[in-house]
């Protein structure tokens, strides 16, 4: 009698990483390469203007203060790792780091990734994040660094071809743990945050008040309240229930994975949340083994070697199951890393269970394990700073508005779709609007004053961070001083709302400026008219180390 055939994976009740994960690893590493390409590419474009020697928040000034308080490069490295503590910081050094990051990202995206290459990307990006100051105070910076260390458990040690070396199942489990923490952190912070998440009303405002809306945001904002309430329920189900199902039988894990992947797709379409959602997709791909139907026609885009390694015969045994396992040293390193993750996860789990839960927090200098979350509260009104300039000698009239690249400005300008690109200036301008609306000035977003100064100077870097200059006769979403800087600059605060959304349209539009996409009304003055001769502005910049004191 013939022995019974092995039960196909599709019917297996076994809980755990059954089968192989060649396809999951292939797309995991390719998507990680894309995220790094976007991250380094954005800094190659904007880095010098943001943190360069003459940037809005010069890294040299921050590093000098940090070294004075910490005591030296070694002490600074232990608290905030960066290669720049040892090489010194310069504009050329920053450009070189970003260029090398772009090259390595392209290699990973093209299909070659090994452990040394991934560690190089990790070290380079960590170096920039450390000195990036306010521009890098986002949870996805730590998430990218943590995901890269996870990638080192999945990629081959030396031979970076995608079909070389069977992916470590322990690495796969660590990927599940990262996916679960990301989703649970976001879900729990909402339940403990604004009441609107519990009342199912947060989506009544989220699409309008999120940092950088996209072209579909107004359409979603105008959905009936019942549909938006259903969206909140779906959000809770995906972020609170699906992560638990990861640890269930294979079919439940696949269902949970599909729900979470689809959820990230909706978030990508509904707004411009930088590369956050693209990065969150990376570990989610590890929820699907090589036999999962989700791969479908995607197999034809995989190189032949990797595709053959992931082939599934009718009996259910994985063709790549007998492929070369990680070398002994790499296996030992993976187990050591898993032990570190287990130990470092203790405060993260305590934080997740705490009623005082923090989101986007690191519990160690190397950011090996972090806690995540987003939109614990949702504002009901949108506030934006608007920077204006005039060439009028007395600052009486002729005010014209500087436009940012992506955030709301001119009421007739359609919100762009820029994800996964991260326009860091636009994001912090959104935070500046929130801070100004509280009536306490701009303390945390003090860079706005430096931006005003640089626009007065006609600084090329500052102008490059904004929308392109206006052509002859052009108005609206552009910078109106492309050739000569203004004599005066001021900053006003406006409240914005989507135009022509019946559900939220006010009865009286008398004090609103109404356009095709937005309506807005002024809520006050953040900075009065300032010029290069404004001594108060000069003293503020000198106090921050952003402007040299005059020669005696």
What best-fitting shape do the alpha-carbon axes yield?
A: globular
Radius of gyration: 25 Å
Number of strands: 7
Strand order of the largest sheet: 4-3-5-7-6
Low-confidence stretches: 1-12, 312-322
Helix-strand pattern, N to C? HHHHHHHHHHHHHHHHEEEEHHHEEEH
Strand content: 5-15%
Mean pLDDT: 90
- SSE class: alpha+beta
Textual characterization of the structure:
The protein has 552 residues and is of the alpha+beta class. It folds into 2 domains: 22-371, no CATH class; 382-543, no CATH class. Helix content is 48%, strand content 7%. The protein contains 20 helices and 7 strands. The strands form 2 sheets. It has a 5-stranded antiparallel sheet. The chain has a two-stranded antiparallel sheet with strand order 1-2. A hairpin with a 3-residue loop joins strand 6 (513-514) and strand 7 (518-530). Helix 1 packs across helix 7, helix 1 (22-51) packs antiparallel against helix 14 and helix 5 packs antiparallel against helix 6 (115-131). The longest helix is centred in the first third of the chain and has 30 residues, at 22-51. The chain is globular and about 75 Å long. The relative contact order is 0.13.
List the keywords.
single chain; 552 residues; alpha+beta; 2 domains; 20 helices; 48% helix; globular; disordered N terminus
Summarize this entry quickly:
This protein is of the alpha+beta class and 552 residues long.
Helices, strands, pairings?
Blueprint: H1 22-51, H2 59-70, H3 73-79, H4 84-87, H5 91-110, H6 115-131, H7 139-151, H8 169-192, H9 195-198, H10 203-209, H11 217-221, H12 225-245, H13 250-270, H14 276-284, H15 304-309, H16 328-353, E1 361-362, E2 370-371, E3 382-390, E4 400-401, H17 424-437, H18 447-457, H19 460-465, E5 488-498, E6 513-514, E7 518-530, H20 535-543
Helix pairs in contact: 1-5, 1-7, 1-14, 5-6, 6-7, 7-14, 8-12, 8-16, 12-13, 13-14
């Amino acid at each position: 009698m013939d022995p019974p055939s092995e039960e196909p994976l599709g019917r297996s009740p076994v809980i755990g990483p059954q089968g192989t994960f060649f396809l999951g690893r292939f797309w995991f590493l390719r998507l990680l390469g894309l995220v790094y390409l976007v991250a380094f590419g954005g800094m190659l474009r904007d880095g010098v203007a943001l943190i360069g020697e003459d940037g809005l928040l010069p890294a040299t000034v921050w590093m000098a203060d940090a070294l004075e308080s910490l005591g030296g490069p070694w002490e600074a490295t232990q608290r905030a790792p960066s290669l720049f503590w040892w090489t010194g910081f310069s504009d050329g050094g920053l450009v070189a780091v970003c260029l090398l990051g772009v090259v390595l990202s392209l290699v990973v995206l093209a299909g070659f990734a090994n452990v040394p290459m991934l560690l190089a990307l990790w070290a380079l990006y960590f170096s920039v994040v450390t000195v990036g100051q306010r521009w890098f105070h986002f949870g996805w910076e730590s998430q990218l660094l943590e995901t890269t260390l996870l990638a080192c458990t999945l990629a081959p040690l030396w031979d970076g071809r995608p079909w070389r070396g069977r992916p470590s199942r322990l690495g796969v489990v660590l990927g599940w743990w990262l996916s679960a923490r990301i989703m649970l952190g976001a879900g729990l912070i909402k339940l403990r945050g604004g009441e609107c998440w519990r009342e199912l009303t947060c989506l009544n405002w989220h699409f309008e008040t999120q940092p950088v809306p996209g072209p579909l945001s107004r359409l979603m904002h105008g959905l009936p309240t019942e549909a938006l309430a259903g969206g909140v329920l779906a959000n809770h189900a995906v972020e609170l229930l699906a992560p638990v199902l990861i640890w269930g039988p294979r079919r439940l894990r696949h269902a949970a994975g599909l729900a979470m992947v689809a959820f990230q797709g909706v978030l990508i379409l509904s707004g411009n949340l930088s590369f956050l959602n693209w990065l969150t997709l990376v570990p989610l791909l590890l929820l699907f083994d090589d036999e999962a139907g989700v791969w479908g026609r995607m197999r034809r885009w995989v190189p032949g070697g990797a595709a053959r390694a992931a082939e599934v015969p009718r009996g259910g045994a994985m063709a790549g199951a007998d492929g070369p396992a990680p070398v002994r040293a790499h296996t030992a390193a993976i187990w050591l890393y898993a032990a570190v993750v287990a130990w470092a996860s203790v405060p993260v789990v305590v934080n997740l269970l705490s009623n005082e839960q923090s989101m986007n927090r690191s519990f160690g200098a190397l950011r090996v394990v972090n806690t995540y979350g987003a939109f614990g509260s949702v504002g009901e009104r949108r506030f934006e700073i608007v920077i204006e300039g005039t060439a009028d000698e007395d600052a009486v009239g002729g005010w014209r508005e500087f436009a940012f690249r992506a955030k709301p400005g001119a009421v007739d300008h359609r919100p762009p779709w820029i994800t996964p690109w991260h326009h860091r200036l636009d994001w912090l301008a959104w935070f500046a609007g929130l801070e100004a609306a509280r009536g306490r000035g701009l303390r945390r977003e003090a860079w706005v004053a430096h931006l005003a100064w640089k626009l007065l100077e006609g600084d090329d870097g500052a102008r490059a961070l904004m929308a392109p200059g206006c052509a002859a006769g052009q108005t609206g979403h552009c910078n109106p001083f492309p050739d000569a800087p203004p004599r005066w600059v001021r900053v006003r605060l406006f409240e914005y709302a989507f135009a022509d959304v019946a559900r939220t349209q006010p009865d009286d539009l008398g004090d609103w400026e109404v356009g095709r996409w937005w309506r807005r009304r002024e809520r006050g003055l953040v900075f009065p008219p300032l010029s290069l001769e404004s001594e108060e502005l000069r003293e503020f910049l000198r106090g921050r180390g952003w402007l040299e004191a005059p020669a005696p």
